[in-house]
Each structure stands twice: as C-alpha cells, then as structure tokens.
C-alpha cells in the first residue's frame, strides 16, 4: 500500500528538482544551440554559484545578496571563459571542445577544493522560509515550496528574455543561423559571449538557490552534469521548451523511483534516455541536424 | 599522418617495448618512481590501449570507460574472493569477457549517435554503472568497501610454483600482460580493421560510401576498448589485493581521458606516457612539494594548456618535432614538387581542348575484378517514375531514366533542375518518395549507400571527400578493402600485406588516376587537381560497374580541366559512367548521350549535337532569349 | 568614383579555385547583372563581396573603403546587403521579427510602414512564422529584410529561382520600382529574360572568369553572346 502523503510529497520533490534541472539544462542547451559547444564545465558552474553565494552569505548574512552574487559571479566566469578559451575552439573539432571544457571543470572544482576544502558547507534558508508548511494532508518544507516558486520565476524570466526581448530574438535567430545574423550587421561573437554568460548564470543561480536544500561541496556539480545531459538528450538539443519538458520528466523519474529504491533512480533515468534515443533520436522536442 | 603499411618483418616497436619493459624497473627508481607507482602506470597504460583504439584511432571520445574497468575488475575479484575460484589468470579473462559483452550491449545504445550526443551518453553510462555498483549490487561488489582479499596470481609449473606476491614479481606479471596487450593492439591497428577505423575517424561518410559497415566497425572498437578496460580492471584488483569501488567513478574515466591526451592520442603508448606523467607528478606534487590536495589542480591546468597548445600530446609533439627536423635536414634531397600547370585563359583553354580532341583516345584501362555479368543483358541502370518530395517542394517528378551497359551519359540542367537530388537517389544516399531503381536487374530502391557500393555502383563527390589524415595510397587501400573483404569482416589480426590482390588493385587504381608517383604523399600535400583525381580514384578502387561523377570538374582551373577530361576519357573506356557537370564543352566531349533535366523533370534526351540544337533546351537555359 | 570597384579577386573553397581575378564595377543607381551558368562562380562572387567567404587575394573598394577580408557584420554596416540564394529567413521568428532584427543595427532604417507598403503581402502575414511562409513570401521577406537597412548596394542572389511565373512577375515589378527610385543593385541570375528586364549592364562569368561585359541593350541586339556562354 503506497503511503499517499509520501507519494505526493515525492511528486512535489520531483517538481522542484525538475524545475531546477530545467533551468540548468536550459542554460546548457542555449549554449550548445548557439555556439555549438557542449559545456562540460556546466556542472562545475552550478557548484561555483553555490560557493559564491555561500561566501557572500557568510559575509553579509543576506540570502538575497548571496543569490545575486552567485548568479553574477558565475555569469562573469562564463564570459571570461568564453573570451579567453572557448572562442579559439569554435573551428576546432568537437572532441577538442569537450576536452577543454572538461579540463576547465577540473580546474574549477580543484580550485574550490583548494580554498575551501572538501567538506560540505551548509547554507541556511532565509529566516522567513525556514520550517515546514502544512499543505492539506501533508507537511512540506517551506523552503522547497519557495524554491519551486523561485525557479519557476527564473524560468519565466529566461523565457521572457528569449521570446519577448530584442536580445532573445537575436539569440534565437543565432541558434538557427548565426551566419545570417552576422550578415545583418550583428557581431555574432559578441552574442556568443553573452549567450555563454547567460547559460552559465542559469547554472550558477540554480547552484545558490538549491544550496539550502542539499548543501554545497566541490563535487556536487558532477551529478548535476550527468542529470543535465540526460535532460538535454530527452528534451532535444538546442530547444528551450525541450529542456523544460525534459527537466520535469527527469525530476519526476528521479523522485518517484527513489521512493522505492534510491539506487535505481539513475538506472530509470538511463532507461528513459535510452527509450528516447531509440524512439525519437533527436529528443522529444528537438530538430534533426543538430548533432 | 600515419603510415599504414609496414615493412615486412619489422617488429621494431614490439622489440623496443620489450626492451623498455625490461629496462624500466632498473632505471625508473632512480628517477623517483616507486615500485607501486610503476605497477599502477602499467595498469593504466593497458587500460588506455583499448581507449586509444576507440578515441585516438576511431575518433570516439568516451567518458564512460570506467564502467567496463570496474565491471571486469569486480567480476574477476568476485570470482576470486567470494566464489573462491582458484586460478587468477582465468578469472581475469572471464572478467574481460564479461566486460566485452557489457561493452557490446552498451555500444548498441551509445553508438546510435555520434559526436556530442555520444559523449553525453557515455558520461551518463559511467554514472549509472557507479550507482548500480554502489547500491543495488552492493552485496556483490562490496558497496563502498569494495572487495578485499583479492589473491595474487600463482603460476604452477609442475615442479614449482611462482608466486607473484611482491612488487617486483607483480611488475613482471603486469609487464607481461601489458606486452601482450600491446602486441595485440599493434596487430589490430595494422590490420584492415585498424585502417578502416582510421578512415572512420577521418571521414565516416566516405568510409560508409566506399562500402564499409561503419556502425559495425565502431561497435568493434567499442568492444575492444571495453575488453582492455575489463582486463586492466582485474589487474588492478590483483595488484592492490583489493578491488576498490572508485574504479567505477566518473573520475576514473576522466583521468583516463586526460592521461591519454597528455601522452598523445592515436599512438597506443600515449596512455602509458600520460599515466607516467600523471602518477609521477601526483606523487611529486604531494610529497616532495608538500602541495597536498592541490596536485590535481596543477595537473588539471597542465591538461588544459596541453589541449590548447599541444593537442597531439607529448608523443605527438615529439613526432612533429622529429618530422620538422627531418624535413629541414633533407630539404635538398626532397623530390621536386610537380611543376604547376600553366595558367590558361578560357580562350587558350578552348584552343587546347580542340587540339586535344583530335588526338586518338588513350589506351583503355579496363575494370580489374568485377566482370560485367553477361548473364544479365538489360540496361545497367533503370529508374522508373522516380520522384522526390520535400514537404511541399517537389524536387524530382516522375523521372524515367535508363542507361545501357558501357554507355557514357551526361546529365545537365539549369539551376533548380533537381540534378543533385536525382544523383543522390541513384546512389541511395536519399530514399525516393516514389518510384523504382533497378541496377543490373536488381531492385535497389531503399537500400543504403554501403550496400549499393558493394553491388558495384559508386560515386565521386562534387566536394572532395577524402581521408585527409592519411596518404594517397592509404586512401585507395581503404576503398579497395571494401570490395575485397565485403561490408564487414572481423579480421583484426590479419596483416594488411596478407590480403590477396590488395596491392594489385591499389596500384592499378593509382595508375588509372595517374597518382602512382604521389602515392606516399599525405593528402594535405596534394594540389587541388591531384585531390580531385584521388576523389575519382576512391570511387574507382572498388571496380564499380557503374561510376557516377558529380561535377568532376568543379573548381578547376582551365589547365586542370583539360587534364581531367583526358583522364576521364581514359577511365571511361569500357566502363559505364554518368556525369553531371556545368562545363558543357568538357562534358560533351566525354559523353555519348545527354539527359536534360528542368524543374525536376526530364526535358529531353539525345546526343550532344542534338541537345545543342534543341530549342527547348536553349529556352530552359536562356529563359526565352532566342538566337538570331 | 564607382560605388563598387572589384579588382583581381581570387576566392577559394579550401583549395578549390573558384574565382580567377574577377574584376567588376557598379556605379550608383545602376542595376548590374552577373550572368553565368551554374557553377560559374556567380554566387561565390556575391558571397566574397559580402564577406561570407573570405577572398584570398584581390581588392574590393566599396564607397571608397577597402572592405576585402572584413567580417560580414562590418560590411553590412558599411551599407552592403546580400539576399542569399537560399533566402535564409529565420523560421522560428515571425515576419515582423525577421524585419525588426534586420533593422537593429541600421543607421537609417526603413519604417515598418514603408516595408509593408512595398510588400503588402508581408503585412497580411506579419504574424506568421518564417517556416509557414510560401516560397514567394520567403523571397519577399528576404528582400524586405535587406531593404530595411537602406543598403547603398543591394546584392540579389538568384531572387527569381524556384518561383511561380506570377510571383516572378510581381517581384520583377517591385524590383523595377526600387531601381527607378534609385536603389543600386547587383543581381546574379540564371533567368536571363528576367535579368535583362532589370539590368542596365551585365557581366558574363564563365568557369570563374569574367569573360564579357556589355550594356543590356547590346546584349539584346546580340543574343549569340549570351548563347555562347550561357547556352548549351
């Protein structure tokens, strides 16, 4: 007999996790869609956001400041990374791009380990969001509820930027045909830098807002990276709606299977990914030709 | 650029490896390597040999090798500890086989995609295996504790037992298996399979188009890498006396990738060198420089710098340096580059062409292997009602097209006529929306490029599709191998020299396209006209019954055009050819009949003279501007 | 000083030599046609001018400035605009977004009303996504996008290809009107009759070489010239 309160609770968890994964995967997918580069350092950027936020929180005591710092710091890291390294790899084979972003992720992780050690650090949720909230027949951690809202707002903001703003229009056009954008007088290399920054920021923001839930450690990015990849494969590379859909699916899969057996959640995720690969090779919402 | 054919009887590398392995334990300790470190280097080196075949030779970057390393290691360790299976060596082999089988199953999933997707899937695989090993299967794998008590190997020789139970003797054991692994790997990369893997890395499209089952070979490389990983995993357990769970981690895969890149991918020894650098530096940085946990940061930075600036790794860099020095010192003795062709204006070209047209045709060079079936006497190619639609756009509409054996046919048409689409349907690169294609009496509609090539229909491409990392000879070898061995053959241990008829076929093809003198040059060193000839050569190497040529004269200077026309004339003797080109003058010299396409349909067919005088054709090209 | 002066232009695709010392001139307010068979190098010439491919050697002087080797976006800002032969409209954006995007970095921008006045059909379809447009509508959009930037020189790469005769007629009329209003155009076309209706002058390119140049009238008087190079 399933404990229904537990089940609903897990579904909620899945929603929260799913929204988070959707946000991170959106960042990864617009970077890949526009620049053609798969950022293996994306998980590390999630981790960096958490640390930048934690550091700010330690000095200011303000959670809001921590979130802003986390997001902005990682955006800066993304911009610098694109300017200093990635831009020289656009014409190099994909494998080289994978190798260099992988190497950079190691550097990020080990740098944090050097400064802050390997033990995890806690980031408490802001005072008004501590504790649990009664939701009818069950209780649910208040912060997680708020987190759902926060991430939903962030996804909405990303959506508005992509679909309702000028810069978003340029980015979407760039994902489709960056050469043509260049022909219309817009310097695509500046766009690339911006896209990398925004994509990184999505990961960094996710890292700090999720910190009160899981606490931070140098290696939390690794698991996130894998889950993000699965989301992108399921949803379709280069597609923002695909990242959202894939994220929600992945989040629910992980949460619900962990109800029965935590070890199997990864296996189920992998099975889902395999199914998508076999039945719809380009992802649920992806388009052909985006290899 | 790698030489594929080896001088007969040259086992220099194997000999040097053996010598190196013998000398290592005598020299390395003085350089600061501890015995344990040396043993670890060997295990990583062996692990990396398989990975290098997958990544360095086939071009598939996998971040999931830890899955097979751990699987092989756990199976072997489980047999030896829990089941108490007596023989270490057999247990290692069982572990390897299991890893290979798992590799096959995983490969079926992972290899459905290439490039970025493939990398992402392998990352996921690594994580999944780790989790499974850690949780659901922890009673078999010991979970986070691993499997302790793995015994050291014992070799019983009847009268005595040799125990490999200290660092020294373990070294002998490990070095032996490394040597065996290296010898096998060298055989594999020198075999036809090895050459084809290199071709797949360079140009998978062309490898498939010249008749190789690319997916099958990729899967083979994947399984080989998994097997090496599995065996090495077993050795790890034996060496440490304990099978650790972190063999399965993503970190392990990542370390393998970094070590291989540092040492140099595509060299087989790269992983060994990389492991030596990695493990030595990690020792050095941690103990001598007292940097503690920062060693990984330093190594990570070194890795990033290497990827940016020394992409081919240490061995690759040394090779490049050697070549640079060698070239500099032999500059005077280098054979002079072929004199460039004279630059001709179009008028001069026309005059030369008219003069050459009067010359007698060169002696025919017939197809070597494939004799046209006299059993089938009908047209060699017959397309009926062939149509192709892309959504609302109709590219080809109801085309009927028949070519007789031995005919030389041209296809022309203004822009948008659908010539390229039509060609791609004939080679089965693209499936028609409706209609049928019959080749030598056999319905080939819906087959794929590889199968059609094996049946004797090949194409030379408008944009060169060569194996650019290899020599001219190697390029032709790859194409010829497909005809001699079929779509897929697992002859990994066969030497290239032992393929009967290969040398003959290659030399014959090189002579046909006049590249005999340039056979050992790398493709990058060829002039454009020579590359175009090689392009045609690749299509010819499998002795096709029907040769399609897609704009063979594209991008050529007037002088190059004349050479190419001469060449195509000599190739055309006794061979069926269909040519698309826009250079009317050249084309009409080469073909007997011309099909004119317009707006996806056949407009008219006839001899060149008839076409020239045809009003409808003139209109199609000139859009209503009439000659006076 | 001509608006466009090209000399000694050599363009390669990798090591495939496509353009051999191409030279041509376009004066202000002229319509010049570049005629030639498939594969002759017409498209490559326009792409070299626009910086989509980088010529290996040669000089391109546009409005007094040397632009050979510059990036496309800089050339676009200098006042040249290319309508690609495969149109390349942004399918995931709608008509109005396509037009607005084009105008973002333009110094003098056509107001939207003027665009819609020139292409009434686009006004009807202003909210439709690029992928939902017909071939003719896509071509109109591609040209509208270029015009929004008020280019000093408009490059048209086979604008009439693959379109129904009625649409070709429609487009011809629009282009004729633009030319009459003073728009300088360099037009690449295989549809000779359409090209001759618009052009004042023509260059003929054959296998990457410029082989002839004549006024439109001269070509109409001597059709065998066209036959020789463009016919069969």
Précis, in short:
Chain A has helices at residues 4-35, 42-60, 63-84, 94-116, 142-164, 166-176, 178-183, 188-214, 220-235, 240-260, 264-279; strands at residues 132-135, 138-141. Chain A has 291 residues and is mainly α. Chain A has one domain.
- Oligomeric state: heterotrimer
Strand content of chain C: 25-35%
Termini gap of chain A: 45 Å
β-strand percent of chain A reads under 5%
Q: CATH class of the domain at 1-77 and 186-232 in chain C, please? A: Alpha Beta
Count of helix runs of chain A: 11
Order of helices and strands of chain C: EEEHEEHEHHHHEHEHEEHH
- Poorly predicted residue ranges of chain C: none
Poorly predicted regions of chain A are none
What series of H and E elements makes up the topology of chain A? HHHHEEHHHHHHH
Largest sheet of chain A: 2 strands, antiparallel
Overall description:
The complex is a heterotrimer of chains A (291), B (628) and C (232). By secondary structure, chain A is mainly alpha-helical. Chain A has one domain (10-218). Helices cover 74% and strands 3% of the residues of chain A. Chain A has a two-stranded antiparallel sheet with strand order 1-2. The longest helix of chain A is centred in the N-terminal third of the chain and has 32 residues, at 4-35. Chain A is globular and about 60 Å long. The mean pLDDT of chain A is 90. Helix content of chain B is 54%, strand content 11%. In chain B, strand 5 and strand 6 (393-403) form a beta hairpin. In chain B, helix 11 (250-263) packs across helix 13 (295-309) and helix 15 runs parallel beside helix 21 (558-572). Chain B has 24 helices and 14 strands. Chain B has two domains: 35-280, Orthogonal Bundle (ABC transporter involved in vitamin B12 uptake, BtuC), CATH 1.10.3470; 381-622, Rossmann fold (3-Layer(aba) Sandwich), CATH 3.40.50. The longest helix of chain B is centred in the middle third of the chain and has 27 residues, at 214-240. Chain B is elongated. In chain B, strands 10-11-12-7-13-14 form a six-stranded mixed beta sheet, sandwiched between helices. Chain B has a four-stranded antiparallel beta sheet with strand order 6-5-8-9, with helices on one face. Chain B has a two-stranded antiparallel sheet with strand order 1-4. With 232 residues, chain C is α/β, with parallel strands linked by helices. Chain C has helices at 42-50, 72-78, 95-103, 112-118, 120-124, 135-148, 165-180, 192-198, 216-221, 223-230, and strands at residues 4-13, 16-26, 31-35, 57-62, 65-66, 80-83, 153-157, 184-189, 201-206, 209-215. In chain C, the strands form two sheets. A six-stranded mixed beta sheet of chain C has the order 6-7-8-3-9-10, sandwiched between helices. A four-stranded antiparallel beta sheet of chain C has the order 2-1-4-5, covered by helices on one side. In chain C, helix 3 (95-103) runs parallel beside helix 6. Chains in contact: A-B, A-C, B-C. The interface between A and B is large, with 43 and 42 residues.
């Amino acid at each position: 007999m399933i404990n229904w309160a537990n089940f609903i609770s897990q579904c909620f968890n899945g929603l929260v996790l799913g929204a988070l994964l959707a946000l991170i995967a959106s960042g990864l997918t617009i970077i890949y869609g526009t620049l053609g580069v798969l950022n293996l350092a994306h998980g590390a950027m999630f981790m960096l956001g958490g640390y930048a936020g934690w550091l700010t929180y330690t000095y200011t005591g303000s959670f809001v400041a921590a979130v802003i710092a986390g997001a902005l710091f990682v955006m800066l890291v993304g911009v610098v990374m694109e300017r200093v390294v990635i831009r020289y790899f656009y014409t190099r084979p994909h494998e080289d791009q994978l190798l260099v972003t992988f190497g950079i992720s190691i550097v990020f992780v080990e740098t944090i380990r050097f400064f802050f050690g390997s033990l995890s650090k806690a980031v408490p949720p802001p005072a008004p969001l501590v504790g649990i909230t009664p939701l009818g027949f069950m209780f649910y951690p208040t912060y997680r509820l708020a987190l759902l809202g926060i991430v939903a707002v962030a996804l909405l903001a990303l959506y508005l930027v992509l679909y309702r703003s000028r810069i978003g229009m340029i980015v979407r056009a760039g994902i489709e045909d960056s050469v043509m954008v260049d022909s219309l007088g817009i310097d695509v290399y500046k766009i690339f830098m911006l896209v990398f920054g925004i994509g990184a920021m999505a990961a960094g923001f996710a890292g700090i807002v999720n910190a009160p839930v899981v606490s931070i450690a140098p290696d939390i990015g690794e698991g996130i990276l894998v889950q993000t990849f699965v989301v992108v494969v399921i949803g379709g590379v280069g597609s923002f709606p695909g990242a959202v859909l894939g994220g929600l699916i992945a989040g629910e899969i992980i949460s619900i299977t962990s109800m029965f057996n935590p070890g199997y959640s990864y296996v189920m995720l992998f099975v889902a990914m395999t199914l998508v690969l076999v039945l719809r090779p380009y992802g649920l919402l992806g388009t052909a030709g985006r290899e | 650029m790698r030489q594929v054919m080896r001088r007969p009887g040259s086992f220099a590398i194997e000999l040097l490896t053996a010598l190196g392995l013998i000398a290592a334990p005598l020299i390395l300790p003085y350089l600061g390597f501890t015995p344990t470190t040396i043993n670890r280097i060997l295990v990583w080196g062996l692990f990396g040999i398989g990975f290098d075949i997958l990544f360095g030779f086939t071009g598939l970057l996998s971040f999931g090798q830890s899955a097979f390393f751990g699987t092989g290691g756990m199976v072997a360790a489980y047999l030896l500890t829990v089941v108490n299976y007596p023989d270490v060596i057999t247990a290692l082999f069982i572990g390897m086989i299991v890893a290979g089988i798992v590799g096959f199953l995983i490969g079926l999933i992972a290899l459905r995609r290439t490039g970025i997707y493939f990398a992402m899937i392998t990352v996921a695989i690594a994580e999944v295996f780790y989790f499974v090993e850690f949780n659901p299967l922890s009673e078999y794998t010991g979970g986070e504790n691993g499997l302790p008590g793995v015994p050291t190997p014992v070799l019983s020789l009847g009268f005595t037992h040799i125990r490999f139970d200290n660092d020294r003797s373990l070294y002998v054991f490990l070095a032996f298996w490394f040597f065996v692994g290296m010898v096998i790997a060298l055989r594999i990369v020198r075999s036809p399979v090895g050459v084809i893997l290199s071709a797949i890395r360079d140009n998978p499209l062309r490898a498939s188009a010249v008749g190789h089952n690319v997916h099958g070979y990729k899967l083979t490389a994947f399984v080989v890498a998994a097997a090496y990983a599995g065996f090495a995993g077993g050795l790890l357990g034996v060496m440490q006396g304990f099978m650790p769970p972190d063999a399965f981690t993503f970190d392990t895969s990542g370390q393998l990738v970094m070590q291989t890149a540092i040492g140099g991918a595509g060299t087989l020894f790269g992983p060994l060198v990389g492991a030596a650098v990695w493990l030595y530096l990690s020792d050095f940085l941690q103990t001598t420089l007292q940097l503690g946990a920062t060693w990984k940061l330093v190594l990570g930075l070194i890795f990033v710098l290497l990827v940016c600036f020394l992409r081919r790794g240490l061995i690759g860099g040394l090779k490049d340096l050697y070549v640079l020095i060698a070239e500099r010192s032999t500059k005077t003795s280098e054979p002079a580059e072929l004199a460039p062709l004279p630059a001709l204006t179009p008028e001069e070209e026309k005059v030369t062409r008219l003069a050459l047209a009067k010359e007698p045709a060169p002696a025919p060079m017939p197809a070597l292997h494939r004799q046209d079936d006299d059993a089938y006497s009908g047209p060699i190619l017959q397309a009926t009602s062939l149509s192709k639609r892309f959504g609302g756009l109709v590219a080809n509409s109801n085309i009927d097209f028949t070519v007789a054996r031995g005919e030389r046919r041209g296809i022309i048409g203004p822009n948008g006529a659908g010539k390229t689409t039509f060609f791609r349907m004939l080679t089965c690169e693209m499936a028609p929306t409706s209609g049928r294609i019959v080749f030598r009496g056999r319905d080939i509609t819906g087959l794929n490029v590889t199968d059609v090539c094996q049946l004797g229909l090949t194409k030379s491409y408008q944009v060169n599709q060569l194996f650019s990392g290899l020599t001219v000879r190697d390029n032709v070898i790859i194409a010829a191998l497909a005809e001699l061995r079929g779509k897929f053959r697992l002859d990994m241990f066969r030497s290239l020299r032992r393929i009967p008829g290969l040398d003959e076929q290659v030399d014959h093809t090189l002579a046909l396209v006049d590249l005999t003198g340039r056979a050992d040059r790398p493709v990058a060193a060829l002039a454009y006209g020579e590359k175009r000839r090689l392009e045609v050569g690749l299509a010819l190497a499998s002795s096709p019954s029907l040769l399609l040529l897609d704009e063979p004269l594209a991008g050529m200077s007037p002088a190059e055009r004349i050479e190419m026309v001469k060449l195509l004339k000599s190739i055309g003797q006794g061979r069926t050819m269909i040519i698309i080109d826009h250079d009317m003058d050249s084309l009409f010299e080469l073909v007997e009949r011309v099909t004119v396409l317009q707006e996806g349909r056949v407009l008219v067919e006839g001899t060149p003279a008839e076409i020239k005088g045809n009003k409808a054709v003139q209109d199609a090209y000139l859009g209503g501007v009439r000659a006076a | 000083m001509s608006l466009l002066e090209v000399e000694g232009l050599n363009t390669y695709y990798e090591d495939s030599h496509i353009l051999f010392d191409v030279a041509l001139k376009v004066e202000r307010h002229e319509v010049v046609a570049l005629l030639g068979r498939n594969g002759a190098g017409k498209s490559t010439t326009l792409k070299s001018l626009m910086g989509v491919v980088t010529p290996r050697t040669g000089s391109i002087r546009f409005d007094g400035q040397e632009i050979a080797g510059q990036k496309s976006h800089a050339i676009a800002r200098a006042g040249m605009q290319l309508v690609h032969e495969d149109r390349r409209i942004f399918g995931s954006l709608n008509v109005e977004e396509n037009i607005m995007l084009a105008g973002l970095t333009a110094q003098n921008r056509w107001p939207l009303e003027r665009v819609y006045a020139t292409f009434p059909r686009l006004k009807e379809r202003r909210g439709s996504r690029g992928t939902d447009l017909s071939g003719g509508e896509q071509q109109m959009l591609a040209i509208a996008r270029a015009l929004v930037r008020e280019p000093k020189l408009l490059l048209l790469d086979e604008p009439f290809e693959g379109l129904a005769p009625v649409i070709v007629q429609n487009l011809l009329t629009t282009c004729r009107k633009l030319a009459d209003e003073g728009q300088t155009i360099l037009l690449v076309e295989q549809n000779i009759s359409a090209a001759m209706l618009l052009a004042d002058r023509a260059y003929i390119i054959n296998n990457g070489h410029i082989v002839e140049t004549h006024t439109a009238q001269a070509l109409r008087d001597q059709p065998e010239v066209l036959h020789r190079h463009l016919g069969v």
